[in-house]
Amino acid sequence: MPPKIWMDLGRRFCRMDEWDRFPALLNAWNAAIASKKQSKIVIPPGTWTLSQAKLQGPNFAPIEIENQGTVQANPDPKTIPNKQAQWITINYVDFFTLSGGVFDGRGGQQAWALNDCHVNKNCPKLPITKDSKTCHINCLECRNVTFTRLTVSAPGNSPNTDGIHVARSMMVNVTNSVIGTGDDCISMGDKLTQVYIQNVTCGPGHGISIGSLGGSINEGDISGIHVKNCTFVNTQNGVRIKTWPSAPATLQISNLHFEDLMMQNASNPVVIDQQYCPWNLCNTTSPSLIQIRQVIINNVKGTTNSLHAVMLSCSSAKPCQDIQIRNVDLTSTTTKGTKPGLSLR
Fold this sequence. Notes:
Elements: E1 4-6, H1 22-34, E2 39-43, E3 47-49, E4 53-56, E5 63-67, E6 70-72, E7 88-91, E8 96-99, E9 102-104, H2 109-112, E10 137-140, E11 143-148, E12 151-153, E13 164-167, E14 169-180, E15 186-188, E16 192-202, E17 208-213, E18 222-233, E19 239-243, E20 252-264, E21 270-273, E22 291-304, E23 308-313, E24 321-332, E25 341-344
Parallel strand pairs: 1-2, 2-5, 3-6, 4-7, 5-8, 6-9, 10-13, 11-14, 12-14, 13-15, 14-16, 15-17, 16-18, 17-19, 18-20, 19-21, 20-22, 21-23, 22-24, 23-25
Subcellular location: Secreted, Cell wall
InterPro entries: Glyco_hydro_28, PbH1, Pectin_lyas_fold, Pectin_lyase_fold/virulence
Organism: Perilla frutescens var. hirtella (Perilla citriodora)
């Protein structure tokens, strides 16, 4: 067993107006990254206040943070010390494990009222977590990362609260998890390969999405995405690929597998949308230059409130290639007995 580094938090219940626990966490972290042996940082049972934390490596040996309690942010985003940073950031470490407990961002109307990223490209970024003020988890520039037995919880009307956002990474696994948000349960950005999403229940939320892509000339290819044995409950979408029209990127999205999916009153079960332009924030005069190919959609069952089981809106400049659709069996919840069909645009 690795030696435990107990955070010196005391046993007093911590209200929002009491002590900030970041100094204790930072001291424990610095001891752990300096150790040449495997170590574990233990956050004891209780409710603890954390203003903001940036934990960085490199580390010499494996590190685990085991949270036995609840770590809370201040509900007012204006109190965050560094307005340009996330609530908790962990960078430049290898063989890192985070387990147990609750990280509560205390998002609510006070914070969500400030979140206008869906209509404002220059919106201020708010910190991330459970009941996050914005996206819950960002996994960026990572390799060989696993999220398992994870619960993400935010109401369906909380804006821009993606459960997990993954980009510029490879070998990422999300398994055996329940994710409910006001935006995508899982969203995937560019330069991504070997992503495996399995046994995930999504809802509420906008589904599991690739994109939106195409906004930057520097975006890279996506390949090897596997979504399997997932359930979508009252979601706005099931699985979705979305790219911007009139955008400079010319990347490829390929080798995608969407299999064994269960829809429970989900809207838009399968969507490829290469004219994605919410809130009219983009130019629609030219088609998307992103190539989508080698997509397998197999064994999609359950119920939907949409009239279209599968919607394909591909680019006229780069038409979709090698799209295989098999074993789709969905029943409409709005028109009893109706079988939704295929929509091509």
